[in-house]
Every structure is written in structure tokens, then in C-alpha cells.
Amino acid sequence: MNRFDWDDVRVMRAVAEAGSLSGAARALGVNHATVLRRVSSFEQATGITVFDRTARGYRVAPGRGRIIAAMQAMEEAALGVARALDAARAPLAGTVRVTSTDTLCLTVLAPIVARLMSAAEGLTIELNAQNQPADLGRLDADIAVRPAVELPAGLVGARAGRLRFAVYAAPGGEAGWLGFGGTLHRSAPSAWLDRNVGKAEIAGRADSFPVLREMAAAGQGRAILPCVLGDGDRRLVRIDDILPQMHVDVWVASHADFAQVPRIRAVRDMLLRALANALEMAAVPGDESGQTKAGG
User: Fold this and answer.
1) Which is nearest to 222 in space by CA: 234, 237, 232?
2) Which positions ≥6 away from 257 have C-beta within 8 Å?
3) Helix, strand, coil percent content, the chain, rounded in steps of 5
4) DSSP 8-state assignment for residue 222
5) How many Å apart are CA 113 and CA 126, to the nearest integer?
6) Dist. CA 250–CA 158, nearest whole Å
7) What's the whole-model pTM score?
8) Residue 226: in which H helix or E strand, if any?
9) CB-side exposure of 101: number of CA atoms within 13 Å?
10) Burial bucket for residue 113 (CB in 10 Å: 0-12, 13-18, 19+)
11) Sequence-ordered alpha helix ranges (H) in the chain
12) How far is it, in rounded angstroms, from Cα 136 to Cα 205?
């Protein structure tokens, strides 16, 4: 196997891109003689002529394009190693502000945030619970974890999983229904309730799923709740075969302008992985593609 200096590879790539020794020297911040020496060193060490010398400069010789392409991949891999080393030398530190709904903060996010902070000394995560979406463009938060039909324009992120819904009630408290107010009135569970339940059957309303859970647990009626909120509450029983299978995608996103800030990107990636596991554990049995989607 031929051995060559990594610096030779960088110079060969630069010459191929610039098309001349002088252009490569300017790009690399070295002198013309250094570039010439490196090209000669590589070709002598490998026994392969990579460039044709012409009056107009250096051109990659026929059949040598694969060599330059491999050098490019090699350089990109080396830069990836360098970035990983930089991240290891500068561990996650500073403050990252995360905003989400009260449901997700109370159920899955609080333990996830605790684990992330314990694993990254110097990292502080501020968890802000609010059902009104934060304005990331005005720096209200660094990361938003939000249920939504699609990712809003201007945000960069990915879908972590699905927030699934079912009907819950306290034993003996199934007579009436609990409705939705505030921002929850725009959700698909609320739309289903409006279509299928008369106003006379609504025993109360709330603008928060955790509040609706407490009202249901107190025996005030049936409530459509996220499964992550209702399944673990021993005061409630789940009533199946009433509500069609329903879900809303959960997104983890940042504003495009600061999505690549290292600590924000790293926390966003870790939240994505952890949320995917947590939401999958809350899957409704028999959940299939094509189920009714819950917007809002």
C-alpha cells in the first residue's frame, strides 16, 4: 500500500480545484514552490502522474478523476474527525432554552432534560411550558418541541414521533364530556367533539390537557387526552372504540438563523432521539398508518 503525507493530499485537491500551482498556493496560503514540491512528492511516492502540465495550467489527467474524488472524500472525513475532536475538547456548556406544551413538559421532557444535564457538565437547559407557540424569531427560545401538522416556515428541525390521543374518564364519571377552550379549541380532538357531541353534553371546558386530566379524574366527565398523559394515571380508565385513532406529529425545531449553533444543534439532536423513544412507548395498540391526524 502506498504511503503519502496528508498535506500532499490537501495540496493535490487544491491544485485540481484551482487548475494551477499559483491558484492552489493562494488558496492554501503557501508559496508556489511549496505546492510544486508537494505535487512532485505525491506523484513520486505513488508512481502515478495525476496532472497533465499544459500551457494553461494543471489539468487532472484522463482516468485520474477517481483519485481526486477519493481525496475529496478523505478530506471531508478528516474535517468530520476534526469537528468531533473540537466538540470533545469543548463539551456542551452554556444555556439552551427549550419551549414546549405543558403536556410534553410534564410527561416526557422533564426526565429527558434531567438526563441530558447530568450527562453534560456545564450545560443548563431552561424548560418553558406554554401552549401558545413561542416566537423563535424573537429569541423567545432556542428550541421548540411542538405538536403540529407540519413544521412552520423559517424553522429547521425534524419530526420526533407522534402524540397519540384516546378517551379517558374516572370510573363512574363517564356521563358527560369535557370540551376545549383557548388554543386547544383549534385542535382535531376539539373538532371531533364538535362534530359528534352536542353542546348539552359538555360538562366543562379547559385550555390545557393536564387541567382536563384533573377534571376527568375528579369525575366531571370524559376527556380526550394525549396517551402520554392519560395512560399512566391510575385514577383514569381509557375508553376505547369511541374515538377514531388520532395523532399529531411532534417536531423538534430551531430558527434557521441559529439552528447550527453547536450547543443548540447538539441538544436538538439529543432531544430528537430521546423523544422518539419516549413517544414510541406511548403508542396506541393497533396504531397504523392512515389513522386520523390531530392538528394543533
Assistant:
1) 237
2) 137
3) 45, 25, 30
4) B
5) 9
6) 9
7) 0.63
8) strand 223-226
9) 23
10) buried
11) 6-18, 21-28, 32-46, 65-89, 102-104, 110-119, 188-196, 209-217, 227-230, 262-281
12) 29
- Pairing outcome for strands 123-129 and 57-60: unpaired
Q: Where are the domains of the chain?
A: 6-89, 94-296
Neighbours of 83 (CB within 10 A): 11
Q: Which amino acid, residue 201?
A: E
- For residue 223, which of 186, 184, 249 has the smallest C-alpha distance? 184
In terms of phi and psi (left: phi > 0; alpha: psi -120 to 50; beta: otherwise), the region of 158 is: beta
Report pLDDT digits (tens) over 155-206. Answer: 888 999 999 999 999 998 778 999 999 888 888 899 999 999 998 899 999 9
Q: What is the CATH number of domain 6-89?
A: 1.10.10.10
List pLDDT tens digits, range 232-291.
899 999 998 899 989 999 999 988 877 888 888 889 999 998 998 888 765 544 444 333
Any alpha helices (H) in 90-136, and if so which ranges?
A: 102-104, 110-119
Sequence-distant (6+) residues with CB within 8 A of 246 are 164, 165, 188, 189, 192, 291, 292, 293, 294
Do 170 and 235 form a contact (C-beta atoms < 8 A)? yes
- Tell me, what amino acid is at 132? Q
Distance in angstroms (rounded) separating the CA atoms of residues 176 and 211: 16
Q: What is the dihedral of CA 206, 211, 217, 220, to 10 degrees?
A: -20
Helix (H, G, I), strand (E, B) or coil at 293: strand
Q: For the domain bounded by 94-296, which CATH number is listed?
A: 3.40.190.290
